[in-house]
Amino acid sequence: MQIAVADRLGDTKEYYFSKKLREIAQMNENDPKVINLGIGSPDRPPHADVVEKLYSSALKDDVHGYQSYKGAVKLRKAYAEWYERYFSVELNPEAELLPLIGSKEGIMHLSMTYINPGDEVLVPDPGYPSYRSASNLAGATCVAYDLKEELGWKPDLEALGKKDLSKVKLMWVNFPHMPTGTPPDAELFKDLVAFAKKHNILLCHDNPYGFVLPAGDFSNPQPLSILSIPGAKDVAVELNSLSKSHNMAGWRFGVLAASEHIINQVMRFKSNMDSGTFLPMQLAAARALSLGDEWFQEINEVYAKRKKKAEELLDLIGCRYKTNQQGMFVWAKIPDNYKDGYEVSDRFLYKARVFITPGGIFGKNGTDHVRLSLCSTVATLEESIARIKKVLKGNSNN
Ligand SMILES: Cc1ncc(COP(=O)(O)O)c(C=O)c1O
User: Fold this and answer.
1) Rounded to an integer, what distance in angstroms lies between the CA atom of residue 208 and that of residue 226?
2) Probe target for ligand 1 pocket from 101, 108, 128, 212, with the most ligand atoms within 8 Å of CB
Protein backbone atom coordinates (compact mmCIF):
# COMPACT_ATOMS: atom_id res chain seq x y z
CA MET A 1 0.00 0.00 0.00
CA GLN A 2 1.23 3.49 -0.75
CA ILE A 3 -0.08 6.50 1.11
CA ALA A 4 -0.42 9.52 -1.16
CA VAL A 5 1.93 12.36 -0.28
CA ALA A 6 0.59 15.83 0.43
CA ASP A 7 -0.19 18.04 -2.55
CA ARG A 8 2.21 20.63 -1.18
CA LEU A 9 5.14 18.45 -2.24
CA GLY A 10 4.00 19.13 -5.82
CA ASP A 11 6.94 18.37 -8.09
CA THR A 12 9.49 19.05 -5.33
CA LYS A 13 12.24 16.53 -5.78
CA GLU A 14 14.98 15.30 -3.52
CA TYR A 15 17.75 17.95 -3.34
CA TYR A 16 20.21 17.53 -6.24
CA PHE A 17 23.25 17.03 -3.99
CA SER A 18 21.46 14.54 -1.78
CA LYS A 19 20.93 12.35 -4.89
CA LYS A 20 24.32 13.02 -6.46
CA LEU A 21 26.23 12.22 -3.28
CA ARG A 22 24.45 8.85 -3.17
CA GLU A 23 25.63 8.13 -6.71
CA ILE A 24 29.18 9.18 -5.80
CA ALA A 25 29.07 6.94 -2.69
CA GLN A 26 28.11 4.05 -4.95
CA MET A 27 30.95 4.85 -7.37
CA ASN A 28 33.28 4.91 -4.36
CA GLU A 29 32.73 1.21 -3.77
CA ASN A 30 35.48 0.96 -6.40
CA ASP A 31 38.86 2.74 -6.58
CA PRO A 32 39.99 5.33 -7.36
CA LYS A 33 37.64 7.31 -5.16
CA VAL A 34 35.80 10.20 -6.74
CA ILE A 35 37.24 13.63 -5.91
CA ASN A 36 34.27 15.79 -5.02
CA LEU A 37 34.79 19.39 -6.11
CA GLY A 38 31.06 19.98 -5.94
CA ILE A 39 29.77 20.84 -2.53
CA GLY A 40 30.64 23.88 -0.41
CA SER A 41 31.25 22.21 2.91
CA PRO A 42 34.44 23.57 4.52
CA ASP A 43 36.93 20.73 4.97
CA ARG A 44 38.90 22.44 7.75
CA PRO A 45 37.91 22.52 11.44
CA PRO A 46 36.63 25.50 13.40
CA HIS A 47 39.11 27.41 15.57
CA ALA A 48 40.50 25.20 18.38
CA ASP A 49 39.01 27.52 21.04
CA VAL A 50 35.54 26.84 19.64
CA VAL A 51 35.89 23.08 19.99
CA GLU A 52 37.44 23.54 23.44
CA LYS A 53 34.46 25.66 24.51
CA LEU A 54 32.05 22.97 23.34
CA TYR A 55 33.97 20.29 25.20
CA SER A 56 34.47 22.16 28.47
CA SER A 57 30.84 23.32 28.55
CA ALA A 58 29.50 19.86 27.80
CA LEU A 59 31.30 18.50 30.88
CA LYS A 60 29.03 20.60 33.11
CA ASP A 61 25.93 19.10 34.70
CA ASP A 62 23.50 21.94 34.19
CA VAL A 63 23.71 22.43 30.42
CA HIS A 64 21.75 19.44 29.14
CA GLY A 65 18.18 20.62 29.48
CA TYR A 66 15.87 22.32 27.00
CA GLN A 67 17.03 25.75 25.95
CA SER A 68 15.29 29.02 25.19
CA TYR A 69 13.38 29.01 21.90
CA LYS A 70 15.04 32.31 21.06
CA GLY A 71 18.58 31.06 21.72
CA ALA A 72 20.93 31.70 24.64
CA VAL A 73 21.39 35.34 25.64
CA LYS A 74 25.17 34.96 25.24
CA LEU A 75 24.77 33.80 21.65
CA ARG A 76 22.35 36.57 20.70
CA LYS A 77 24.70 39.14 22.25
CA ALA A 78 27.63 37.64 20.34
CA TYR A 79 25.67 37.92 17.07
CA ALA A 80 24.80 41.55 17.87
CA GLU A 81 28.44 42.42 18.59
CA TRP A 82 29.55 40.64 15.40
CA TYR A 83 27.00 42.58 13.31
CA GLU A 84 28.12 45.83 14.88
CA ARG A 85 31.82 45.11 14.43
CA TYR A 86 31.84 43.79 10.88
CA PHE A 87 28.70 45.18 9.27
CA SER A 88 28.27 48.41 11.28
CA VAL A 89 24.67 47.36 11.89
CA GLU A 90 23.13 47.87 15.31
CA LEU A 91 20.75 45.11 16.35
CA ASN A 92 18.99 44.62 19.67
CA PRO A 93 20.06 41.16 20.87
CA GLU A 94 16.80 40.78 22.80
CA ALA A 95 14.52 41.45 19.88
CA GLU A 96 16.18 41.64 16.48
CA LEU A 97 18.21 38.43 16.25
CA LEU A 98 16.94 34.89 16.09
CA PRO A 99 19.49 32.03 16.12
CA LEU A 100 18.65 29.33 13.59
CA ILE A 101 19.67 25.79 12.74
CA GLY A 102 21.63 27.06 9.74
CA SER A 103 20.44 29.75 7.38
CA LYS A 104 18.71 27.07 5.30
CA GLU A 105 16.24 26.67 8.16
CA GLY A 106 15.55 30.38 7.99
CA ILE A 107 14.65 30.17 4.29
CA MET A 108 11.93 27.67 5.16
CA HIS A 109 10.74 29.57 8.24
CA LEU A 110 10.41 32.88 6.41
CA SER A 111 8.52 31.13 3.62
CA MET A 112 6.14 29.37 6.01
CA THR A 113 5.62 32.56 8.02
CA TYR A 114 4.83 34.87 5.12
CA ILE A 115 3.60 32.96 2.10
CA ASN A 116 0.01 32.11 1.29
CA PRO A 117 -0.85 29.69 -1.51
CA GLY A 118 -1.05 31.73 -4.71
CA ASP A 119 1.45 34.37 -3.60
CA GLU A 120 4.42 34.93 -5.88
CA VAL A 121 8.06 34.87 -4.85
CA LEU A 122 10.94 36.36 -6.85
CA VAL A 123 13.87 33.95 -6.98
CA PRO A 124 17.23 34.51 -8.69
CA ASP A 125 18.20 32.52 -11.78
CA PRO A 126 20.86 31.29 -11.24
CA GLY A 127 20.44 30.95 -7.50
CA TYR A 128 20.47 28.70 -4.47
CA PRO A 129 17.80 26.03 -5.17
CA SER A 130 16.32 26.16 -1.65
CA TYR A 131 14.66 29.54 -2.29
CA ARG A 132 12.55 27.90 -4.94
CA SER A 133 11.80 24.68 -3.07
CA ALA A 134 10.91 26.42 0.21
CA SER A 135 8.61 28.81 -1.68
CA ASN A 136 6.96 25.93 -3.52
CA LEU A 137 6.48 23.96 -0.31
CA ALA A 138 4.76 26.99 1.21
CA GLY A 139 2.40 27.10 -1.78
CA ALA A 140 3.89 30.03 -3.69
CA THR A 141 4.42 30.39 -7.39
CA CYS A 142 8.06 31.18 -8.08
CA VAL A 143 8.86 33.90 -10.56
CA ALA A 144 12.49 33.67 -11.64
CA TYR A 145 14.31 36.95 -12.20
CA ASP A 146 17.31 36.81 -14.50
CA LEU A 147 20.87 37.33 -13.47
CA LYS A 148 22.86 37.60 -16.67
CA GLU A 149 26.56 37.67 -17.30
CA GLU A 150 26.24 40.77 -19.50
CA LEU A 151 24.73 42.67 -16.53
CA GLY A 152 27.44 41.46 -14.14
CA TRP A 153 25.04 38.83 -12.73
CA LYS A 154 22.98 41.58 -11.09
CA PRO A 155 19.20 41.97 -11.35
CA ASP A 156 17.77 44.43 -13.85
CA LEU A 157 15.43 46.17 -11.41
CA GLU A 158 14.15 48.58 -14.04
CA ALA A 159 12.94 45.74 -16.27
CA LEU A 160 11.60 43.81 -13.29
CA GLY A 161 9.70 46.87 -12.06
CA LYS A 162 7.75 46.99 -15.34
CA LYS A 163 6.23 43.56 -14.72
CA ASP A 164 3.03 42.96 -12.81
CA LEU A 165 4.36 42.47 -9.28
CA SER A 166 1.02 42.79 -7.51
CA LYS A 167 1.08 39.20 -6.28
CA VAL A 168 4.74 39.21 -5.24
CA LYS A 169 5.10 38.87 -1.48
CA LEU A 170 8.77 38.08 -1.09
CA MET A 171 12.06 38.41 -2.99
CA TRP A 172 15.25 36.42 -2.41
CA VAL A 173 18.62 38.07 -2.96
CA ASN A 174 22.09 36.85 -2.09
CA PHE A 175 25.40 38.77 -2.38
CA PRO A 176 28.18 37.62 -2.44
CA HIS A 177 26.12 35.62 -4.85
CA MET A 178 26.16 31.87 -5.01
CA PRO A 179 26.89 30.41 -7.54
CA THR A 180 28.35 33.33 -9.56
CA GLY A 181 30.61 34.80 -6.83
CA THR A 182 29.32 38.32 -7.61
CA PRO A 183 30.45 40.68 -4.82
CA PRO A 184 27.93 42.74 -2.82
CA ASP A 185 27.36 46.30 -3.94
CA ALA A 186 26.03 49.11 -1.72
CA GLU A 187 24.37 50.92 -4.65
CA LEU A 188 22.53 47.78 -5.67
CA PHE A 189 21.46 47.19 -2.05
CA LYS A 190 20.06 50.73 -1.92
CA ASP A 191 18.14 50.14 -5.14
CA LEU A 192 16.84 46.81 -3.85
CA VAL A 193 15.53 48.36 -0.64
CA ALA A 194 13.81 51.13 -2.63
CA PHE A 195 12.37 48.54 -5.04
CA ALA A 196 11.03 46.42 -2.16
CA LYS A 197 9.44 49.47 -0.54
CA LYS A 198 7.86 50.62 -3.79
CA HIS A 199 6.34 47.22 -4.52
CA ASN A 200 5.57 46.22 -0.94
CA ILE A 201 7.77 43.15 -1.00
CA LEU A 202 9.62 41.49 1.87
CA LEU A 203 13.27 41.56 0.78
CA CYS A 204 15.14 38.52 2.08
CA HIS A 205 18.91 38.79 1.85
CA ASP A 206 20.82 35.55 2.33
CA ASN A 207 24.39 36.45 3.30
CA PRO A 208 26.44 33.36 4.23
CA TYR A 209 29.53 34.11 2.07
CA GLY A 210 30.55 37.63 3.18
CA PHE A 211 33.71 36.51 4.96
CA VAL A 212 35.04 34.13 2.32
CA LEU A 213 37.51 35.76 -0.06
CA PRO A 214 36.20 39.28 0.63
CA ALA A 215 37.52 42.17 -1.43
CA GLY A 216 40.62 43.91 -0.15
CA ASP A 217 42.63 43.02 2.89
CA PHE A 218 41.88 39.59 4.36
CA SER A 219 42.93 40.80 7.80
CA ASN A 220 40.23 43.45 7.71
CA PRO A 221 37.14 41.89 6.11
CA GLN A 222 34.35 44.36 5.34
CA PRO A 223 31.33 42.35 4.33
CA LEU A 224 28.13 44.16 3.50
CA SER A 225 24.76 43.73 5.16
CA ILE A 226 21.54 44.82 3.50
CA LEU A 227 20.53 46.10 6.92
CA SER A 228 23.27 48.73 6.70
CA ILE A 229 21.14 50.60 4.15
CA PRO A 230 19.17 53.34 5.97
CA GLY A 231 15.54 52.32 6.42
CA ALA A 232 16.20 48.73 5.30
CA LYS A 233 14.78 47.18 8.45
CA ASP A 234 11.28 48.32 7.42
CA VAL A 235 11.30 45.96 4.50
CA ALA A 236 14.38 43.72 4.55
CA VAL A 237 15.65 40.83 6.62
CA GLU A 238 19.01 39.09 6.52
CA LEU A 239 20.08 35.50 7.04
CA ASN A 240 23.63 34.81 8.08
CA SER A 241 25.54 31.68 8.94
CA LEU A 242 28.62 30.25 10.63
CA SER A 243 28.76 27.37 8.15
CA LYS A 244 31.20 28.95 5.73
CA SER A 245 32.77 31.82 7.69
CA HIS A 246 33.74 29.67 10.68
CA ASN A 247 34.09 26.17 9.21
CA MET A 248 31.00 25.06 11.13
CA ALA A 249 28.66 23.74 8.43
CA GLY A 250 27.89 20.56 10.36
CA TRP A 251 27.13 22.44 13.58
CA ARG A 252 24.12 24.12 12.01
CA PHE A 253 24.36 27.71 13.19
CA GLY A 254 22.65 30.52 11.39
CA VAL A 255 20.81 33.65 12.36
CA LEU A 256 17.90 35.79 11.22
CA ALA A 257 18.47 39.53 11.65
CA ALA A 258 15.29 41.56 11.27
CA SER A 259 12.95 44.04 12.94
CA GLU A 260 11.37 42.95 16.22
CA HIS A 261 7.99 42.60 14.53
CA ILE A 262 9.31 40.19 11.89
CA ILE A 263 11.28 38.15 14.44
CA ASN A 264 8.09 37.79 16.51
CA GLN A 265 6.12 36.60 13.49
CA VAL A 266 8.79 34.03 12.55
CA MET A 267 8.86 32.87 16.19
CA ARG A 268 5.18 31.98 15.91
CA PHE A 269 6.23 29.37 13.36
CA LYS A 270 9.68 28.35 14.60
CA SER A 271 8.78 27.84 18.26
CA ASN A 272 6.26 25.24 17.13
CA MET A 273 8.89 23.43 15.02
CA ASP A 274 11.85 22.95 17.35
CA SER A 275 13.44 23.94 20.64
CA GLY A 276 16.72 25.73 21.35
CA THR A 277 19.88 23.85 20.39
CA PHE A 278 22.33 22.25 22.86
CA LEU A 279 23.68 25.02 25.13
CA PRO A 280 27.40 24.04 24.87
CA MET A 281 27.11 24.36 21.09
CA GLN A 282 25.54 27.78 21.45
CA LEU A 283 28.32 28.88 23.79
CA ALA A 284 30.93 27.56 21.37
CA ALA A 285 29.22 29.42 18.51
CA ALA A 286 29.37 32.60 20.60
CA ARG A 287 33.11 31.98 21.01
CA ALA A 288 33.44 31.62 17.24
CA LEU A 289 31.72 34.96 16.72
CA SER A 290 34.22 36.67 19.01
CA LEU A 291 37.29 35.45 17.07
CA GLY A 292 39.59 38.20 15.84
CA ASP A 293 40.52 39.22 12.32
CA GLU A 294 43.41 36.69 12.31
CA TRP A 295 40.81 33.95 11.86
CA PHE A 296 39.56 35.45 8.62
CA GLN A 297 43.09 36.11 7.44
CA GLU A 298 43.99 32.47 8.08
CA ILE A 299 41.00 30.89 6.31
CA ASN A 300 41.23 33.25 3.35
CA GLU A 301 44.93 32.73 2.74
CA VAL A 302 44.13 29.05 2.35
CA TYR A 303 41.17 29.72 0.02
CA ALA A 304 43.22 32.13 -2.08
CA LYS A 305 45.87 29.46 -2.77
CA ARG A 306 43.19 26.92 -3.65
CA LYS A 307 41.51 29.40 -5.94
CA LYS A 308 44.69 29.70 -8.02
CA LYS A 309 44.73 25.91 -8.44
CA ALA A 310 41.02 25.79 -9.22
CA GLU A 311 41.58 28.39 -11.93
CA GLU A 312 44.40 26.23 -13.33
CA LEU A 313 41.98 23.31 -13.52
CA LEU A 314 39.38 25.44 -15.28
CA ASP A 315 42.00 26.75 -17.73
CA LEU A 316 42.79 23.17 -18.60
CA ILE A 317 39.17 22.51 -19.58
CA GLY A 318 39.06 25.79 -21.50
CA CYS A 319 36.65 27.62 -19.16
CA ARG A 320 36.40 31.38 -18.69
CA TYR A 321 35.89 33.02 -15.28
CA LYS A 322 36.16 36.30 -13.39
CA THR A 323 38.97 36.54 -10.86
CA ASN A 324 37.17 38.86 -8.40
CA GLN A 325 34.63 36.27 -7.30
CA GLN A 326 33.79 36.03 -3.60
CA GLY A 327 32.69 33.00 -1.61
CA MET A 328 34.04 29.47 -1.73
CA PHE A 329 33.48 28.60 -5.38
CA VAL A 330 34.69 29.52 -8.81
CA TRP A 331 31.94 29.98 -11.38
CA ALA A 332 33.06 29.47 -14.95
CA LYS A 333 31.71 29.57 -18.49
CA ILE A 334 32.31 26.33 -20.34
CA PRO A 335 33.98 26.24 -23.76
CA ASP A 336 31.80 26.02 -26.89
CA ASN A 337 32.66 22.41 -27.66
CA TYR A 338 30.39 21.20 -24.84
CA LYS A 339 26.60 21.22 -25.05
CA ASP A 340 26.18 22.39 -21.44
CA GLY A 341 27.63 22.19 -17.94
CA TYR A 342 25.98 18.80 -17.39
CA GLU A 343 28.07 17.37 -20.23
CA VAL A 344 31.26 18.77 -18.69
CA SER A 345 30.29 17.46 -15.25
CA ASP A 346 29.37 13.97 -16.51
CA ARG A 347 32.47 13.68 -18.66
CA PHE A 348 34.88 14.33 -15.82
CA LEU A 349 32.84 12.43 -13.24
CA TYR A 350 32.72 9.24 -15.29
CA LYS A 351 36.09 9.53 -17.08
CA ALA A 352 38.31 11.25 -14.48
CA ARG A 353 36.33 10.53 -11.31
CA VAL A 354 36.30 14.24 -10.50
CA PHE A 355 32.95 15.78 -9.69
CA ILE A 356 32.27 19.39 -10.75
CA THR A 357 28.83 20.93 -10.25
CA PRO A 358 26.89 21.67 -13.45
CA GLY A 359 25.65 25.27 -13.38
CA GLY A 360 22.22 24.25 -14.68
CA ILE A 361 21.13 23.04 -11.24
CA PHE A 362 21.00 26.71 -10.23
CA GLY A 363 18.64 27.68 -13.05
CA LYS A 364 18.52 28.04 -16.84
CA ASN A 365 20.93 31.00 -16.84
CA GLY A 366 23.58 28.71 -15.39
CA THR A 367 23.29 26.04 -18.06
CA ASP A 368 26.52 26.85 -19.85
CA HIS A 369 28.52 27.20 -16.64
CA VAL A 370 30.09 24.97 -14.02
CA ARG A 371 30.89 25.64 -10.37
CA LEU A 372 34.04 24.44 -8.67
CA SER A 373 34.29 24.30 -4.88
CA LEU A 374 37.34 25.51 -2.96
CA CYS A 375 36.71 23.06 -0.12
CA SER A 376 39.52 20.71 -1.16
CA THR A 377 43.23 20.99 -0.49
CA VAL A 378 45.74 22.20 -3.06
CA ALA A 379 47.06 18.61 -3.23
CA THR A 380 43.56 17.30 -4.05
CA LEU A 381 43.12 19.96 -6.70
CA GLU A 382 46.49 18.98 -8.16
CA GLU A 383 45.39 15.34 -8.24
CA SER A 384 42.18 16.44 -10.01
CA ILE A 385 44.25 18.35 -12.56
CA ALA A 386 46.39 15.27 -13.19
CA ARG A 387 43.30 13.07 -13.69
CA ILE A 388 41.67 15.58 -16.03
CA LYS A 389 44.89 15.99 -18.02
CA LYS A 390 44.95 12.23 -18.57
CA VAL A 391 41.40 12.23 -19.90
CA LEU A 392 42.04 15.17 -22.19
CA LYS A 393 45.27 13.60 -23.46
CA GLY A 394 43.54 10.27 -24.03
CA ASN A 395 40.92 12.05 -26.06
CA SER A 396 43.36 13.94 -28.27
CA ASN A 397 45.08 10.63 -29.04
CA ASN A 398 41.83 9.14 -30.35
C1 LIG B 1 23.40 30.71 -0.86
C2 LIG B 1 23.30 29.78 0.29
N3 LIG B 1 22.43 30.04 1.27
C4 LIG B 1 22.28 29.22 2.32
C5 LIG B 1 23.02 28.07 2.43
C6 LIG B 1 22.79 27.19 3.61
O7 LIG B 1 23.70 27.46 4.62
P8 LIG B 1 23.52 26.92 6.08
O9 LIG B 1 24.56 25.90 6.28
O10 LIG B 1 23.72 28.12 6.95
O11 LIG B 1 22.14 26.37 6.25
C12 LIG B 1 23.93 27.73 1.44
C13 LIG B 1 24.69 26.48 1.53
O14 LIG B 1 25.32 25.99 0.67
C15 LIG B 1 24.08 28.61 0.34
O16 LIG B 1 24.95 28.36 -0.65
Assistant:
1) 12
2) 128
